Design the sequence.
C-alpha cells in the first residue's frame, strides 16, 4: 500500500493516547476536556426528542442541507447577533460536526503543504492535529497573563520577507479561557491582533468554545464583533454548554467563505446530524439553553475554586498555576527539574491523570508543565486528586 505523503505528518493526538489510561476504573482524571456528566439535561433532551419526532420526524430523520437546517442556522445567527453582537445572517452561518470540523474545514480550504499557521504556545491539541493533517508548518507565538503576545507576533511578521509572510494562511487564537492555559486575551490585545490582521491581510480563526462559561468578571467583545474587514472566522460549539455527544458546532464568516467551507464539507460528511440540529434548535428557541447555562457555570465555578484551594494546600513551593475566570482548564508550571511526561506513569500508579504540557507546545517547550481539567470531577475527587499529585511532586523535588 502506498499512502499519501501527508500521512507521515499525521500524529495520534496525545490526548486520545492518554484518555485511554485516564478513564480506567478508580482513576481521578484531570486529563480530558470533558463536561461533567451531571451537566447533561437528559430529561429535557428526551422530551424535545419526542416533540421533534412527533412534529418534524420525517425531516429530522432525512438527509439535510450541507450548510445546516435552515431554521437552525437562523436561530444561531439570531443568537450570535443578540448575545455576542456579531452581525450576521443565516447565510453567514454553517453548521458543523462540532467546532473540530471547522478547524479541519478551514485548514482544508486555506492550507497547501508547507504553508504557515500562526499558533499560540501552548495551544489546543485537536487544532494542531487538523493543521498537521494538511501539512501545515507553524509560526509560534508565546503567551503571558494577557494571552497571545501580539507584540511578538508583530515583530516576527515585520522581520519576515514578503514571500514567507504570504505563506501565512491564518492566525489561530482561543481568546476566552484558553485551552490549555485558561487565560483570556485582553481587550487591548484583541484590538492589536485585529490591526495586524488588517495590515497584513491575514485572517484570524477565532475559536471560542468557552465564552459562555465565565465565572467572574465581564465578557469581552469577540474579535468577530469588532471586525470591519471580514477577516475573522468565528467558531463555537454546543459541546461545552449542552452535550458533546450531539456533535454540533458552527462557524460564522463572510458569505463567500461559507460557500467554500460548505463545498469542502460536502466531501467530508454531506451534512451534520440533522436530528441533533432539530433538538438543539428547540433547546434554544424554548429558552432552555439560557436556563441551563447558569447551572453549569455554578457547578464549574465551585469546582474551579476547590481546585485552586487544593493546589494552595497540597502543591509545594515553586509551583505556579493560572487562575482562569472561566472555562474548564488551568495550567500548572512545576519546578524545572520535573518532567511531567516522565512523571505521568507514576501519577497513573497513584490513580490520578493529567496531560503533560509538552503535548500542547509545537516549539518543544512545556516539559515541566501540565494541564488540569476541573469540570469533569466532583469536588471530593478534585481535593483527593490534587493531594495525590501534590505528594508525588513533593517526592520528586
Ligand atoms: C479550543 C477548542 N476548540 C475546539 C474544540 C472541539 O470541540 P467540539 O468539536 O466538541 O465542538 C475543543 C474541545 O475541547 C476545544 O477545546
Sequence:
Amino acid at each position: 500500500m502506498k499512502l499519501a505523503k501527508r500521512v507521515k505528518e499525521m500524529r495520534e493526538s496525545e490526548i486520545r493516547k492518554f484518555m485511554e489510561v485516564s478513564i480506567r476504573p478508580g482513576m481521578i482524571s484531570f486529563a480530558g476536556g470533558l463536561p461533567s456528566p451531571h451537566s447533561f439535561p437528559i430529561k429535557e433532551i428526551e422530551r424535545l426528542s419526542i416533540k421533534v419526532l412527533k412534529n418534524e420526524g420525517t425531516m429530522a430523520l432525512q438527509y439535510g442541507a450541507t450548510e445546516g437546517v435552515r431554521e437552525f442556522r437562523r436561530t444561531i445567527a439570531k443568537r450570535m447577533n443578540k448575545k455576542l453582537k456579531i452581525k450576521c445572517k443565516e447565510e453567514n452561518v454553517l453548521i458543523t460536526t462540532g467546532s473540530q470540523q471547522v478547524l479541519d474545514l478551514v485548514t482544508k480550504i486555506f492550507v497547501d503543504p508547507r504553508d504557515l499557521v500562526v499558533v499560540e504556545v501552548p495551544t489546543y491539541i485537536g487544532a494542531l492535529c487538523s493543521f498537521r493533517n494538511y501539512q501545515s508548518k507553524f509560526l509560534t507565538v508565546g503567551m503571558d497573563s494577557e494571552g497571545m503576545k501580539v507584540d511578538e507576533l508583530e515583530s516576527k511578521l515585520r522581520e519576515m520577507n514578503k514571500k514567507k509572510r504570504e505563506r501565512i494562511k491564518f492566525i489561530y487564537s482561543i481568546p476566552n479561557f484558553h485551552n490549555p492555559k485558561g487565560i483570556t486575551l485582553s481587550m487591548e490585545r484583541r484590538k492589536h491582533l485585529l490591526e495586524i490582521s488588517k495590515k497584513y491581510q491575514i485572517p484570524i480563526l477565532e475559536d471560542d468554545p468557552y465564552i459562555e462559561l465565565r465565572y467572574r468578571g465581564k465578557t469581552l467583545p469577540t474579535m468577530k464583533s469588532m471586525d470591519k474587514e471580514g477577516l475573522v472566522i468565528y467558531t463555537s460549539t454546543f459541546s461545552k454548554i449542552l452535550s458533546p455527544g450531539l456533535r454540533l458546532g458552527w462557524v460564522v464568516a463572510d458569505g463567500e467563505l461559507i460557500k467554500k467551507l460548505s463545498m469542502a464539507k460536502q466531501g467530508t460528511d454531506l451534512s451534520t446530524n440533522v436530528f441533533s440540529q432539530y433538538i438543539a434548535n428547540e433547546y434554544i428557541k424554548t429558552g432552555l439553553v439560557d436556563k441551563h447555562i447558569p447551572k453549569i457555570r455554578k457547578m464549574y465555578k465551585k469546582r474551579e475554586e476547590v481546585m485552586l484551594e487544593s493546589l494552595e494546600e497540597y502543591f509545594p513551593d515553586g509551583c505556579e498555576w493560572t487562575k482562569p475566570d472561566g472555562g474548564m482548564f488551568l495550567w500548572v508550571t512545576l519546578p524545572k527539574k520535573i518532567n511531567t511526561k516522565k512523571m505521568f506513569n507514576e501519577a497513573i500508579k497513584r490513580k490520578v491523570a493529567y496531560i503533560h504540557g509538552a503535548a500542547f507546545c509545537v516549539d518543544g517547550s512545556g516539559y515541566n508543565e501540565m494541564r488540569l481539567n476541573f469540570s469533569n470531577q466532583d469536588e471530593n475527587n478534585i481535593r483527593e486528586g490534587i493531594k495525590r499529585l501534590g505528594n508525588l511532586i513533593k517526592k520528586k523535588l
The mean pLDDT is 95. Residues 6-40+291-396 form a domain with the Aspartate Aminotransferase, domain 1 fold (CATH 3.90.1150.10).
